[in-house]
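Hey,
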Amino acid sequence: MSHHFNNYIAGEWRAAKSGQTVENRNPADADDAIGAFPDSSAEDLNEAVAAAREAFEAWRKVPAPLRALKVQRAGELMRERKEDISRQMTREMGKVIAETRGDTQEGIDTAFYMAGEGRRLFGVTTPVELPNKFGMAVRRPVGVAGLITPWNFPMAIPTWKVFPALVAGNTVIIKPATYTPATVCELGSILEEAGVPSGVFNIVCGRGSTVGEAMLHHNEINVLSFTGSSAVGRRINEVGGKTLKRVSLELGGKNAQIVLADADLDLALEGVLWGAYGTTGQRCTATSRLILEETIHDRMVQMLVDAAAKLKLGNGLDESVQVGPLVSAEQRETVHSYVEIGREEGAELALGGEYYEEGDCARGYFYRPTVFVGVTPTMRIAQEEIFGPVLSVFKVKDAEEAMRVLNDSSYGLSSSIYTRDVNLAFKAIEDLDAGITYVNGPTIGAEVHLPFGGVKDTGNGHREGSFTVFDVFTEWKSVYVDYSGRLQRAQIDVEE
């Protein structure tokens, strides 16, 4: 019998008003039930918003360093429970245990980093144009934050949003992804134990079509932060704009790794294997395109196919497994449909392209690591986000063409170039149209103290991580203090 989870509203764990639940199962083993989760409605969300609105007035007046201490304590509790959190996460979404440990560690790192920001939250002091007058700008919380998070990083991405929102003085309602609510419920338990007051942090589990839509339309939610597909992001931006909500979007990617002829090919191979098949390709930063200079193309493709064919698939709780399942049957079908599209478009399938159902993997949603060669930029598999273990390989004649092919995308999240030529490395840093560029590293591996986000269809200009995330969760207030004792009229022409 599976465990029953509840929403967390106003400091209480509550079932959905309807009493309805949705059962989640391990994508590596359909016989393994994770739990039954609330199938919530707008009525449940309304209760959470009311609780968050009421809690906001007191929470915003708590000094930021004291708010940050709650987040720091949450990080300490996460560190104590890291292994349990990570193992549950592997059962919940499938990625291998080494990766879920990394996911949990990123949440811990975010807690400690954001706790430090509670003693900064820097504003600005600046000269003013009149004597005996002082000018500054300070940050203030926005209000109630609605957070909608994805399933591929069940702890890291929620903490990217929750911790800075709380440190800034906002109250929070989070709708976790329907595939991975258990990890967010664990985060709720941790924040409760850390002493976050009632109503400051709330969880409402449910579907995007019900809870998510209700969040978009709710007049008492002041800022929306979403990570997910570009199609859903456009919908959120459209609806949120009607009520002038602040909207932060971190969306899809079609990331590419360039390998030039002078590169360390063994290093580049390690990078593309990790970038393309880590998390089974289910990352917005995953390497889905490999751009090879023609003189090393054939050799690199052979190295890639040989190495990818040896990757071990299976249940991620097995420490020897390198590639876990896709998150659901539907996601596996989507991935396979793109493989069929690639074949129809004339790309050559060099490896994979089929379900993997050997042994215990027959109970899960596994897909063989896949490599297409002979891909051209106009193909759909070259342009559309697949979100699975499918890599498209391009042949180019030189670095200039490689950068042009990389930029030929509607997305612009992460990019990578392997070269020993420092001049070309710096040219790539300047010319690659992406929010992130790695030199001699794969397209994945962001750290919490650097801004995270992209350009073009990858988002709407905001950044998560680093101090830059506070531009999402704070408002600026300009302050003028006149201590002259007389009226001074600014912006009025005066004689010198």
